[in-house]
Amino acid sequence: MDIHEYEVGLHWRELDTPALLVNLSVVERNIQRMADYCREARVNLRPHAKIYKATPVFAWMQLRAGAIGITASKLSEAEVLASAGIRDILIANQVVGERKVRRLVNLAAHTDVIVAVDSYDNALAISQAAQAVGVRVGVLAEVNIGNNRCGVEPLETTLKFVQGLLPLPGVRFRGLMGYDGHLAFVEALEERYGRSREAYQLLVKTRDCLVAAGIAVEIVSGGGTNTYKSASSVAGMTELQLGTYIFNDTTYRDLGLREFDCALTLLSTVVSRPDRAGAENVAILDIGRKGVSTVYGLPEMKQPAGTIFSMPQEHSRLQLEADGAGLKAGDVVELWVKDANGTVNLYDHLYAMRGERVEAVWDLPGRGKTT
């Protein structure tokens, strides 16, 4: 295994490119800021590990700051976290199919795993597999609060669904979860927060419906980084599943998330300064769409000043401003990450920076894990 020991201590300009960098001081500040907010708001924090591809060092940083557990998107991410000794894990998606269910119940043998369910047949399969190995699997009933993806319909429909879960041996009903992902990119903050509050009020009303029927509901879980304030303001929400805040990116920043600084940048090398009419201030970089997610648009320059105006697979075209006129082939430039989630998933490791020096090089063990 390449542990990159020779790169620790290098100046950022000495790294090979393209390279993904994370500013440790910013990450630590973001983690503490969200932990403090949730503590003051009296809501538990269960951060989402998909943003850092289940890299255990980030999960442990969040747990040490006060998180009660970790959220994962995929069973494979949960397995990575469990292998690093993390026990309290919510898989905030359905785990369906014989092979995956078998892995799930084996994971439950040495962790306190919780999984989302919205199908009786799926819950029955988990129940039967759990009985076979002598474990119990915690479940949250996912409720559709407007995202129109997974989830049972709220109120009475959820009540009937949960009543069907309760008799199943090997399954322990823990509570409800919902997600307002359809609101994350609503540009008007007042509208975003207002609609988000309504969504989570519906989730809490669904909890009340269950409680009125004599069903104990321990957990009411949801939220996302762009709606954490609105989700936490709804009385009855017990925990938040927040991911992007740890790194932030320029997309979320431009949507108003400015209390958390952007921590991720990309290094790239100038490979050409074209000598032709009309290209006097153009530089060609060695990073293209294979090295950065462009789902939300092209990345911004951090240094030097300029604009990325084209990004094929392997290159970028950079229009320089006046102070970049002296840039030459071989020079290293730095770009902000516009889509943290998608970009991190393109790299096998990242460079943890303290100032201008590499403090550590961390592999991303959940990168590309889709099962």
Written overview of the protein:
The protein has 371 residues and is an alpha/beta fold. It folds into 2 domains: 5-19 and 260-363, Beta Barrel (Lyase, Ornithine Decarboxylase, Chain A, domain 1); 24-246, Alpha-Beta Barrel (TIM Barrel), CATH 3.20.20. The chain is built from 10 helices and 17 strands. The chain has helices spanning 24-41, 56-64, 75-83, 98-108, 120-133, 156-165, 189-212, 228-232, 250-254, 340-344; strands at 19-23, 44-45, 70-72, 88-94, 112-117, 137-142, 171-177, 219-222, 239-240, 264-272, 282-285, 301-303, 306-310, 316-320, 332-336, 349-354, 357-363. The strands form 2 sheets. Strands 1, 10, 11, 12, 13, 14, 15, 16 and 17 form a 9-stranded mixed sheet that branches. It has an 8-stranded parallel sheet with strand order 2-9-8-7-6-5-4-3. It is elongated. 45% of the residues are buried. The model has no long low-confidence stretch (mean pLDDT 96).
Q: Would you kindly provide a brief summary of this structure?
A:
With 371 residues, this protein is α/β, with parallel strands linked by helices.
Order of helices and strands: EHEHEHEHEHEHEHEHEHEEEEEEHEE
Unreliably modeled segments? none
Q: Termini separation (Å)? A: 23 Å
Helical coverage, percent range: 25-40%
CATH class of the largest domain: Alpha Beta
